[in-house]
Amino acid sequence: MKEAAVLKNSYYDSVTLMSTTVQIKKDLNLDDLVMFMGTAMNKEMIQSVGLYQPILDSAQPNDLMLAISSSETIDDWVNKVIERLTSKKKKDTSGENRRYHTLHQAKEAMDANIAVISVPGIYAAHEAYKALDLNMHVMLFSDNVSVEDEIGLKDYALKKDLLVMGPDCGTAIINGKGLCFANQVKRGSIGLVAASGTGLQEVTVIINRFGGGITQAIGVGGRDLSEAVGGRMMLKGIDALDQDESTQVIVLISKPPHQTVMEKMKARLKTMTKPVVLCLLDAHDDEVIKNVYPTSTLTGAAVEALRLMGIQTPDLLTISPELNQEIDLHRKQFSPDQKAIKGLFCGGTLTAEALSILRPYTQGLTSNVAKKKEEKMSNPLISKGHNLVDLGDDIFTQGKPHPMIEPTIRLSRLLEEAKNKETAVILLDFELGLGSHDDPVGVTLDGIKEAQQLAKKQGRHLAFVGYVCGTEQDEQGLKYAEDRLRDSNVIVAKTNAQAAMIAAELIKEVA
Fold this sequence. Notes:
It is built from 17 helices and 19 strands. With 511 residues, it is an alpha/beta fold. β11 (249-254), α9 and β12 (276-280) form a beta-alpha-beta unit. The model has no long low-confidence stretch (mean pLDDT 92).
């Protein structure tokens, strides 16, 4: 059966809907479930997964749309879904003393100076303008905001000496408080500006691990360094950290900016008195700028920032003799056909970093995050040769939660790769911290075990390489996560970059 329903004037934020979909689907034994607010784009998403029903035509952006498919009749299914949604909402807000219905009420009661906005894209700019009018910085988690609205918001914010982080900004740490997806890290003297969520997380957790700390970690949204937006908030973030007395070292993180934005950034960096670590993945510029330290990896950015603070770190990329022995044990068990690395990532920037590292060691490497035409996967759903797949891409998340929120959606692809006779190495990332799944490692272990057994029955051996992006202070616990991976015969890397290097070593003599 396929059924749908519309709940009038029932707003749920996208994070709540995404984080509960898989569990509710499991609880009610449904074949499929989608829960979206009634925007035109969301209606198209429901159509794309084959669950659209005529009743959804009436849905307005402030209405909740539900659609299910099931091999059995589910009595009173709408109320059962809402009961679980409501219990999640109550759990999430149980620690609050008071809820506010407008930005103005919250501003008056709390004297807040920052607003996190997560509403459907068609409303997001309007709410962001309200916050700016109240002299509040804005973290705009919402996506589907037009470029024109982004430019308008950022120009207005600049006039008021405020930040607009986003749209589609997933990570920030402001005055020691993580916003949206962020890890628990110590306060310190290193400030960051990033057009990358998981890239920002990766650098901050490595800095934390070796005794460094963060002043501010400012996200700007992935589109900020485009030609149209012109790096407005990247430049504003640089200015803010340059003027901040607590910040001694600045780290900038992004995928390659548009050349016009790159020139603006270089012009600003030439005026800096503080040291700046510049991590632009896959960007190449030979110009030497005083006090600017370019790096090619997120690991390198963290290590360089720590060095500038006088903190030395062990080598986080080189393969130790002990680790090499472990790699060799796996390599000896591969069959002749097993030559391929399959990366199944939750983090987009971690995928991009692995691509840049593995490129020299693999022929025909492709990815859905690649910018070079020859490296672009023709179809991210089809695996052939060396592949690095960002499972947070829109093609995988239409009608489904993001894999950082619900990593179980990665399991079906994991088993597909395990069945592929060319697969030698499966590369996985796990993100801990605020916003992420309560136990991303735990819900993946059975899938890893099933994949290992499947390959073994077919006379093959799979090597799993895992990296956990997190801290011991995160609720999920870094050591607890890593220990369980090791117990499942997974090679655990110190950083995402090292995980890519380990994967390269595993296939070096069989490629």
